């Protein structure tokens, strides 16, 4: 009898240890060398860190933002801006559908991203999903018809493709903040020698299907430690042969991209980080705080440098469109120079421009 009880206890202990081990918080930025730098004080003791310093950690205050151009209220999304800081946040608000998008959702996201692009006080944009169960589960399959997704009219739409292009070309960093749930259940198990309380966490937090493509198109992804990533297309009769394939191949490499698409498996956040799909994985309770930290850190940097870097990082892959974006940035910068201004001023003053005073640099 005592032998059986001891064996049961042993089994119980192993289970608790296994659950506890599973729940051990992931060290922030497990793969990123940046962590070592930001935590090792000796590495911080240099002029670079003394001058640029730490970012503030006070809580962010959100205010609901409107689409100033259309004046229409948002239904499928929540659009917010941080008070006194250059951060906008777009939240897909269809939690009962795991934040699956319909054409209306996408139209609203496009309007919000447009507003954030146009608002010169905004320097970085967060994309996330409402609630605790999903970032986004892709297109709303209940609305899928023969020619795309249909909501308020009879035309099928694949307008998420326009949104992907918009995010890719938007000259400000866009961060996907991939949320997840953490629901605690507890059960008390009594045995002869001990009374053990076992805690179960139900975890989820899906960035799947077209929702997975959305996070990949964003410039950076910060994930909660129990988020789940994957493509479902081949299981539901769909595929994204555009950015969903080409950007993924760049991110994880051609073999792994084939695995993700052909097998349509799901991957835990830690695995996604190893694969290069996400920038960092943090405990759920730190997710927004960490994302805001990244935003604040970028906001301290030169907006023009970030703008040009984004277009430069995309340029080769994006062909003519990438060149167009990078070239537009070059023109933007040139217009601000004395040399560029000389041409315009001469035209206005109806005189011959004098470019001879400008250096012909090596
Ligand atoms: C995301 C899940 C893994 C979550 O599973 P879980 O068990 O937690 O929850 P439920 O399955 O019970 O879902 C709860 C509730 O939500 C509804 N729901 C979830 N996802 C969707 C969805 N995508 N569309 C519609 N409804 C959804 C679900 O039916 C439940 O409703 P109840 O009324 O029953 O409570 C799991 O839900 C899941 O696997 N979801 C589907 C993921 C998926 O296959 N997405 C579509 C991929 S295709 C796509 O997104 C896509 C879109 C485009 O616009 C494209 C455009 C151009 C090219 C390609 C495109 C493309 O591939």
TrEMBL record:
Entries under Pfam families matching the protein: ECH_1
The keyword Lyase belongs to this UniProt entry's keyword annotation: yes
Catalytic activity of the protein: 2-succinylbenzoyl-CoA + H(+) = 1,4-dihydroxy-2-naphthoyl-CoA + H2O
Organism: Ficus carica (Common fig)
InterPro entries: ClpP/crotonase-like_dom_sf, DHNA-CoA_synthase_MenB, Enoyl-CoA_hydra/iso, Enoyl-CoA_hydra_C
Keyword terms: Lyase
Record Gene3D superfamilies: 2-enoyl-CoA Hydratase, Chain A, domain 1, Lyase 2-enoyl-coa Hydratase, Chain A, domain 2
Protein name (database record): Naphthoate synthase
Keyword Signal among record annotations: no
Gene Ontology biological process terms in this record: menaquinone biosynthetic process
GO MF term set: 1,4-dihydroxy-2-naphthoyl-CoA synthase activity
GO CC term (a single one): cytosol
